Amino acid sequence: MLYLASQSPRRRQLLEQIGVDFRTVDVDVPEQRAIAESPREYVSRVAREKALAGLAALSDASAVVLGADTEVVLDNEVFGKPVDAADATAMLRRLSGRVHEVISIVWLISHAGEWSDTSVSRVRMPELDAATIKAYIATGEAFGKAGAYAIQGHGAKLIEHLDGSHSGVMGLPIFETARLLRAHSLMTT
């Protein structure tokens, strides 16, 4: 049985979209970047720790757990989820008129082994004026999202160009996830 180590409605929706049968397992993994840890290493570690925590929480010996993490990166700085409106405003101001990366890594872990795959997307935002940022933050969408935006909602208006995976920017890169699941006979098509 496949378990998703996440309570994210977006990740559940994306797995459902491709017809995967799964259950969720709730995990609580600290998301804090270690000193000298690269953004990619950080994202990979957090995704792996989520999958490992999910596996540890289950008594099913045949369980396979999918863990994922997605972060926005600009100038080697990881933009996590904003703590408040001021933090969200500061993030969007920094992303404004720039190209940033979105790193999304998935880990598939069972008692038989561990496998991972990575999606790196480049996202360009146009210059955002203060009124645009304020109006976007007023939608409430900025909260709980890495980089203070949701590409699948009103935040799509803030994206000038995407080079990479739309679903990866949402939080679960479907192509890479499906490739992992097919390789381990957890998905047939």
Descriptive labels:
single chain; 189 residues; alpha/beta; seven-stranded mixed beta sheet; 24% strand
What would you note in describing this structure?
The chain is of the alpha/beta class and about 190 residues long. It is about 35% helix and about 25% strand. The chain contains six helices and seven strands; from the N terminus they run βαβαββαββαβαα. It has helices at about 10-15, 40-55, 85-95, 130-140, 165-170, 175-185, and strands at about 1-5, 25, 65-75, 75-80, 100-110, 115-125, 160-165. Strands 1, 2, 3, 4, 5, 6 and 7 form a seven-stranded mixed beta sheet that branches. Helix 3 (about 85-95) packs across helix 4. The radius of gyration is 17 Å and the shape is elongated. The two termini are about 15 Å apart. About 35% of the residues are buried.
DSSP strand tally: 7
Q: Percentage of helical residues?
A: 25-40%
Tell me, briefly, the overall form: elongated
- Distance linking N and C termini: 17 Å
Order of helices and strands: EHEHEEHEEHEHH
Q: Could you tell me the strand content as a percent range?
A: 15-25%
Mean pLDDT across the residues is 95
Overall structural class, as computed from helix and strand content, comes to: alpha/beta
Instruction: Report the C-alpha radius of gyration, rounded.
Output: 17 Å
Largest sheet entry: 7 strands, mixed
Number of helices: 6
Uncertain stretches of 5 or more adjacent residues:
none
Please write out the topology.
Blueprint: E1 2-4, H1 9-17, E2 23-24, H2 39-57, E3 64-74, E4 77-79, H3 85-95, E5 99-110, E6 113-124, H4 130-138, E7 161-163, H5 166-170, H6 174-183
Parallel strand pairs: 1-2, 1-3
Antiparallel strand pairs: 3-4, 3-5, 5-6, 6-7
Helix pairs in contact: 3-4
